[in-house]
Amino acid sequence: MLYDIFVDPFVQMYQMPDFFLQVLWEGFVAGILYALIALGFVLIFKASGVFNFAQGIMVVFAGLTLVGLHENGVPAFLALILTIGVMGVLAYGIERVVMRPLVNQPDIILLMATIGLTYFLIGFGELIFGGEPKRMITEELGLPTGSTAFEFGERGLVILQHIDIAAAVIAILMVTALGIFFNKTRIGRALRAVADDHQAALSVGISLNQIWAIVWFAAGLVALATGIMWGARSDVSFALEIIAFKALPVLILGGFTSIPGAIIGGLIIGFGEKIAELYWGGLVGGGIESWFAYIIALIFLLFRPQGLFGEKIIERV
Amino acid sequence: MFYREAGQFKTSYEKDQALFPIRQDKIGLGVILLIAFVVIPLTANDFFLASIMIPFLVFSLAAIGLNVLTGFCGQLSLGTGAFMGVGAYAAYKLTTIFPDVNVILLVLTSGIFSAIVGAIFGLPSLRIKGLYLAVTTLAAQFFLEWCFIRIGWLYNYNASGAIEIPTREMLGVVISGAEATPLARYFVVLSITVVIAFLISNVLRGRIGRSWMMIRDMDIAAELMGIRPLQTKLMAFAVSSYICGVAGAMMVFFWLNAAEPSSYSITLSFQILFMVILGGLGSVGGAFMGAAFIWILPIVLRAIPSMLGVDIGAETVEHLAFMVIGALIIFFLIVEPHGFARLWQIAKQKLRVWPFPY
Predict the structure, then answer these.
(1) Which of A147, B186, B253, B337 is the most exposed place for a label (fewest CB within 10 A)?
(2) What is the pTM for the complete model shown?
């Protein structure tokens, strides 16, 4: 038993390095997608202190809008632009109807409001686009498909899907773009000011409402990118919503307010989950992917509650 | 005018601190109990009992359980569904092992297992709170759900992976299993709910309940005044999980007859949390109102189109119901973040001063 837990998995890793690399790659891709979802959470949490449970459903909604528009005869790129427009309208609507009247309410009320929003978007999305899974329009958007197999050593192969590589590249580009946006532009600086101190930001003439609409829009764009990437791997369906909960442990690891933290947290969770599932999962009957991330987060909470990159303002008891 | 406590004098501290110090409240409660125990069983049909009243009572009890933790002790939990599941599976195993013991006794005992599990997952609450605590309870939710699926012993290695409730009798009446009449189930569920609600109301206004509220309002001050956070918080977790566990066991024994692990998923946790928030954090009566709203509203919404004679598909109605519920939740959070309990208080105040504005 002890051998199975502590020795055997490592022996396997050593004996089949190609399989191990494949697992690592899978973990990397899953991690990127968790990181993208967590990124959406972080953007909104930084600017307004709202923990946005609806991020998961926004991913589904963005993906469905894109595919739905294309199915109705809109060319792929026009559909993409229209979807961006829809996310903008959604962001403005959420800010106006939900967030603005709820300013200064306790955290839990805001959290519940975003869950209410989730219900609304589920109903709305299913009403318009139907409940069944849809195929993402990968080729039409000009994203690469297919895969490359790398020979590894004498006997092994590592297979990389092109769409996964594209996902990684897009994620890196997006984080860089967000980083530049936050540090170099006027609106980005205003966003950081709001994140630091709402009242001080107001007093130097930054419009909170405008900033909130912008971050919700940015989160919507991140959701759209996530939706395309995730949809290309599996179909666009409401089952994706459950993935949003994975963003919570990612945020615990990375810290609630850190963009690099979201990325690194996502990768740690992605790697950890896949490796644990494939090498240790068999010992307890498999399927440990569903809770492994939370256990990592739990252990992490005990030692470093502010996360890897978070600010040290956690409330201790 | 309609609701005045003028002339009702209290001559001792005990009377002043009574559960229902005002005569109108006592009468009102008596009327509600009379309706619940006599009028509804006499008049209602099986559908009303089985698909509205029984689930409503089960959810009310679960909402009371979560309210103890979130409303009174201030600890956010997203694992209610799993704690209910622990109760259900524990009761199922108990009735398999002890087939001759009264099933109500087993349902009440199963809550103890749920309480133990809840207290274990409550341990991190000593270091963290708020959203961080929500993550640990999410861990409980997903981990326990996984256990319900993977550990065959819990469901007696059924091929279906679901637990099916055997027929059990009490005093010669079948009260659980497929043959039980809705009326018998209704009485069992109603009695358990009323008794637990009454007991917990008394706990909440006593020393234990007040120490929970002190922790909720300001933990550091509470600690300085001699409240031990460790015992107090773990007790809140245990009591809350006990009630949720009993509710979960009742859910499968007296309502669903069979349950899969997905019956106790995160969706259920959210549903219960909604009931607590919309009903009003920190109010036992609010839990009932919240449960009624969240459970009965979708049923009403689904019935509306056919009543109006509009012919739209069942799926469309389902989606519309989802939208309306989401929108209403946001609406109520905006209009009254303190829930129906506060609305009820405002209504009482209005009744008190009517016909004058104040």
Answers:
(1) A147
(2) 0.85
